[in-house]
Design a protein that fits this description.
Length: about 400
């Protein structure tokens, strides 16, 4: 899929802010003429996650075609359509999708959103339709009605946690529990009475806590996830360190950010392979190429597990008597990430990963990640809705 324009990104933000989960597809000129589109990995994952269709279980040939009720959303009306899902006998049976009437609805290379609700697939032309205008219109329209049905929010535990955070913030700057990048998280969890452990489950009654020093430009941690070594050419972090690490002071390490948009100084980049449903890390060294892999479904599940509901807690870092203190000051509250957005944001370089690997005294390698991070001010591309709270300070 091509890179999204600024307008298209803003329109996707509007949908995520309104709790709309969707996947994206881009019809080509040839596809519109032949009435055919590739069902990309993100589309297949979305349909499977919504229990609409699993291409992996579908046989090839027209006799195995599946048809699903669909609607094409216009500014003032919706047109009944039918989604055809099939795998042809040719070209290895690569999954295909088509919507009846799409040739009159879309131009080549428009970005279309596919939204499942109540067993129906809704198609929305994100390139052409002014979503902000429709949602702010006093006149009811198909998009506004659909979003009103989708929205749902619950606040009980969040209100309880917010009271506790306000009590902490009202104490003024609190001393850090240790000297480390992780000090802010450890300090806050201790103040909340949360046991420090390595559990992957959310921190407070189902709510994940992500605290950070409020510095402009800081990316936010989403989660850490080791590669699937069984799918990878390299079988451990030591191999990664041996091939791409560098000497820094007394340490031999690999601390770097890897993006799908550009190669970093170590020659590393990310690649999404929708045919095998994997995220790959690739080296520009010809003898290495793709060297580690993650199953995208594993990453999606990890995101859902970690961030079903999250408090992103910002604090000022203040030095008092040569010791770091934290003044907790604001919270951004997110719910239910739009899983299909994860792949899109990876492709767009908005979500990246960090390697944090260091040689151990015994000659092995210690990996603190890989950590998947999202750019600042991009949470509203992944999470709906985002609510902001100012904490009561002393």
């Amino acid at each position: 899929m091509r890179q999204l324009t600024a307008i298209e990104i803003e329109r996707i933000k509007i949908l995520t802010e309104n709790s709309v989960e969707l996947c994206l597809i881009e019809p080509t000129e040839t596809g519109l003429v032949k009435s055919i589109m590739d069902a990309t990995g993100s589309v297949r994952n979305y349909l499977k996650s919504k229990k609409i269709h699993d291409f992996g279980l579908q046989h090839q040939g027209q006799e195995s075609k599946v048809q699903i009720t669909a609607k094409l959303i216009y500014t003032d009306k919706s047109i009944n359509s039918i989604a055809s899902l099939y795998r042809p006998n040719t070209k290895n049976g690569d999954p295909r999708i088509w919507f009846k009437g799409l040739g009159n609805y879309s131009k080549a290379n428009d970005i279309l959103g596919i939204i499942e609700f109540d067993g129906i697939l809704y198609v929305l032309n994100i390139t052409q339709i002014d979503l902000d205008k429709l949602l702010n219109s006093k006149i009811h329209n198909p998009l506004k009605e659909l979003i009103e049905e989708i929205n749902h929010i619950s606040n009980e535990v969040a209100d309880e946690l917010l009271i506790l955070l306000n009590k902490i913030a009202s104490q003024g700057p609190v001393p850090a529990m240790l000297k480390a990048d992780t000090a802010i998280g450890r300090t806050l969890e201790t103040l909340l009475g949360i046991d420090i452990n390595s559990s992957k489950k959310p921190d407070y009654k189902g709510i994940e806590l992500k605290s950070y020093r409020d510095k402009k430009g800081n990316r936010k941690n989403l989660f850490a996830q080791v590669p699937d070594w069984s799918l990878s050419k390299f079988k451990n972090s030591a191999e990664i360190l041996n091939n791409f690490g560098y000497k820094r002071g007394e340490d031999f390490k690999l601390y770097c950010t890897v993006s799908a948009l550009v190669r970093n100084s170590q020659g590393l980049t990310l690649k999404l392979d929708s045919k095998i449903n994997q995220l790959l890390e690739n080296s520009d060294k010809a003898n290495i190429g793709d060297f580690i892999a993650w199953n995208l479904e594993t990453l999606h599940n990890r995101l859902l597990e970690k961030h079903n509901e999250t408090f992103w807690i910002a604090a000022d870092s203040i030095i008092i008597d040569n010791k770091e203190h934290f003044q907790f000051k604001k919270v951004e509250h997110t719910r239910k990430p739009i899983v299909t957005q994860f792949d899109i944001l990876l492709e767009q370089g908005i979500i990246t990963l960090d390697h944090l690997i260091k040689r151990t005294p015994a000659g092995g390698a210690l990996e603190k990640g890989p950590i998947f991070k999202i750019k600042p001010n991009a949470l509203d591309l992944l999470f709906p809705p985002s609510l902001s709270y100012s904490l009561i300070t002393k």
